[in-house]
Amino acid sequence: MGAMVFLVIFLGGWIVLGRYWWRTSRHRVLSVLGAGMLCFVVGGVAGTAVDGALTSPPVVASTPTAPSPAAAAAPSKPAPAASVVAAPTAAKAAPAAAEADPPNVFAQREALEKKALAGDYQAQRNLAYSLGHDEPTNTMQACAWRIVILGSGSAEVDDSDLANKRLDCNRKLAADALYAAGMRAVAIGEKIDARRK
Fold first, then answer.
1. Which of 23, 48, 89, 166, CA to CA, is 20 to 30 A from 6?
2. Is the four-CA dihedral 69, 71, 77, 79 of positive or negative sign?
3. Domain check: are 40 and 111 in the same one?
């Protein structure tokens, strides 16, 4: 099957591409030879891929077999001392793994949002970053917070905030999503103003 794919791509591509390049190139012979080389490589890769996809062995799940009666009747040896020592080490590693659980992103965002709605500049920046970069992302909401930061009038606003707005809004959002983020920013700004009064 892979040989057939190779031949179709090689010959068909060489004829079609070669004819096109023959008509459009000043170096006709070289262009037709180049077309042949290109189609040879592409056909070879495609043929190999098809052969590999069709001839790969199927994955078979292995099932454990029951021990033979002779093996079950044989006396078992005591476990080596190393396995007895390994058990407490594994028990000590379990609490360490439990302590290393990642913090809940939603809880962090909720705490940041409370501070951000109170007008805290750094909390606004951290929330916008979290929304734009930590999974699960919400690019439109991140953009809205970037717009709020720029419109906040804070003395801490600098060029990095403008660059972050360009990154989170202009580069990541389409025009309609950018408009929606602007509308969301207006609503967030009104919430912040209402809390200040």
1. 23
2. negative
3. no
